User: What shape does this take?
Amino acid sequence: MNQIPSLSLSYNEITELVINCIKQHGQSFEFKNFCNNVGATAVRDGLVENPNPIGHQAIYFPLQRKDECIVRQVLWDLIVKRILTIGDFYNDTWPWVSVTEPGKAFLMSKSENIK
Assistant: This one.
């Protein structure tokens, strides 16, 4: 299980990637699974090279530790802005995260820059 190469993206570009992944991922998610989704999306969209051999069907695309920390920071920014909240209906603590009602409206609107 190879980590994908480091994301050579700005903080704002990673924020946009995270927002797009939240839109695709649904109303709640677990942090590590979400990071894998971010990695898979980066590979699928050609933002990084697939670390797996050609023809290998992988479902796990772990981020580099540095990139995982940036994703955590982006999620925290979204929590502070009340787009996300910690916990969901079944799990009320971190690492579970869910979209708030205002967050649903934000995600349905255009993906404008959060900053």
Summary: The radius of gyration is 14 Å.
